[in-house]
Amino acid sequence: MSSDSDTSGRAERRDLAFDALADPVRREILAVLAEEDECSAGALAERITSVGRTAVSTHLRVLRVAGLVTERRAGRFRYYAVDPTGSAAEVMTLLQGLFQQSLHDVRATVENRPPASGRTDTDRTDGAAEAG
């Protein structure tokens, strides 16, 4: 029973992360954080010029709730960083798995495809078939 709730919890976190990543401003914020390691909300608002400070704060909250960024408070400032152990890691693992499977599928398709125009390597006249 615990396994089912763990699985559904992971799926829910993954869904939140993908929902958060669907927005181009949030992806831009993550890109800045990936470059800077840690950044204050004010500094992020200065770099993200497509929206205002309030919108940046709202986007940061969505990213935090989705488990993609961490928040550290220091006095009246809040600093944000990509969370390498949170949903970001899960999403990367999932995407890497999908990418690897896609590569495997493409490789299998190419290897099992018949030669073009019905020719085989033995039909070649340049001697390359014998050299390989």
UniProtKB/TrEMBL annotation:
GO terms for molecular function: DNA binding; DNA-binding transcription factor activity. Residues 6-106 form the HTH arsR-type domain. Residues 120-132 have a biased composition (Basic and acidic residues). Keywords: DNA-binding, Transcription, Transcription regulation. InterPro entries: ArsR-like_HTH (IPR011991), HTH_ArsR_DNA-bd_dom (IPR001845), HTH_MetalResp_TranReg (IPR051081), WH-like_DNA-bd_sf (IPR036388), WH_DNA-bd_sf (IPR036390). Residues 107-132 are annotated as: Disordered. This is HTH arsR-type domain-containing protein.
